[in-house]
């Protein structure tokens, strides 16, 4: 497409103090007025926190473990990204209008920007959180290959932006804490990436209980197998290789890179780690939310 400079690598634009892709900001009225339905299921995550993984698991649950049904289309069409609007490429709001119920969708919006219809209908929501250091590393590599983001700069520069919340969808700290508080008043199941890594079966049981679904042992085992990192990494319907190179360049860094806990140790210098931890303690001190940085 000739309009590449117009669409990609543009600076973020603030919406109510949260930096978002310029195109989401430009079409914000369309996002804000999104009309949820009572049987919608919303997956909410801060970017790079296992969004595609939990989306694949839930699509498998919705299809009773039938992996063939989950090959019907790419994950970003099976589980649309509600607020993602890129002129000439995608429009999550429009995509969802044409989707049969019950709809499965995802968002990266912080809790205060979520369209009000989700609260009005008290929709079920699943929030997946991942420790900050692994998110920062994964997000840095993602910025390199996903061209909707501004250029990340060096790791040091990116880490500073991440800590300051000057990245798409704002501050990780505010995001995880905002949804953590909201779960007290709404039907939100709050999960942790590290728990899912450590014991995926018991986390899938939590999901089934929350969704009031009863699946056979055989179906659960199929879900475990088809949602494992190595199987998803090879699955073109889950690994984003169906997008064009100008949207995501997998030769720079694959979309599904490592999928592990504790990879931050390979990236952070001692000085960066110490600075980060000090800032982290300050920002998280009044929250009951606790993360594990490795398993």
TrEMBL record:
A UniProt-annotated Pfam family: Sulfotransfer_1
Compartments, record wording: Cytoplasm
Uppermost EC category: transferase
Protein EC: 2.8.2.-
Any one GO biological process: sulfation
GO MF term list: aryl sulfotransferase activity
Gene Ontology CC annotation, any one: cytoplasm
Keyword terms of this UniProt record: Cytoplasm, Lipid metabolism, Transferase
Domain of life: Eukaryota
Domain Sulfotransferase: 38-287
InterPro entries in the record: P-loop_NTPase, Sulfotransferase_dom
Subunit structure: Homodimer.
Similarity-based family: Belongs to the sulfotransferase 1 family.
Protein name, entry field: Sulfotransferase
Organism for this UniProt entry: Cavia porcellus (Guinea pig)
Gene for this chain: LOC100717261
